[in-house]
Hints:
The protein is an alpha/beta fold and 224 residues long. Helix content is 43%, strand content 17%. It has a single domain (5-223), classed as TIM Barrel (Alpha-Beta Barrel), CATH 3.20.20. The protein contains ten helices and eight strands. It catalyses: orotidine 5'-phosphate + H(+) = UMP + CO2. Keywords: Decarboxylase, Lyase, Pyrimidine biosynthesis.
Amino acid sequence: MSSPIYVALDTPDIERAKAIATRVRNHVGGIKLGLEFFSANGRAGVREMATLGLPIFLDLKFHDIPNTVAKAVQALRPLEPAIITIHASGGRAMMEDAKAAAPLGTKVVAVTVLTSLDENDLTSIGLSGDPHEQVMRLTELARDAGLDGVVCSGNEVTAARKLWPGGFFVVPGVRPAGGPIGDQKRVMTPRAALDAGASVLVVGRPITQADDPDMAAREIEATL
Ligand SMILES: O=c1ccn([C@@H]2O[C@H](COP(=O)(O)O)[C@@H](O)[C@H]2O)c(=O)[nH]1
């Protein structure tokens, strides 16, 4: 069975992204390319990364009116990504139209509450406190809109899976025990997140900022 780890290659430097992906390729199940990589390298960069032969997760987190998001998803079709992201808070019509615009083999998953946000952050943007409740609300909305799954933290994935047993659950904010958490606030170890019900784990800096990314990926994989 392939590894549940998608390594987040958050860099504008395509040569660095290729070098890390090449080093860790035997310990990860795919590569995640996000806003930083895509803003610098665009679709050509994604095509170049695809030549490594690993599944591509395009984490562009679209959030706009339904027509704009659907057209943006449509523009990604030739890249045939394994997974793409949109924001659940864009609403049901936006999620429905995004799913309809995606290639058949692409999983469309909705970000619920970013793992960098906690209760205080939600209150500060006018949402009633507890991230857990907001994740549950948006998980139900994404399920009812016909998406494939959601992005949430390891703290919520067990309850989200209860609401949606057939859903696909992407869990970032994954940190080896005792490691620096940086800007993440809702974190869990890789093993605990998998046990809690994650379908895939997104791991960025614990691998990419390590002195030896290959060893870091190998050590995380060994805990799973
Ligand atoms: O809620 C979310 C959604 C997406 N991400 C992305 O995952 C990686 C995490 O990187 P680390 O270096 O392991 O913190 C990054 O690309 C984010 O854009 C997330 O962290 N939380």
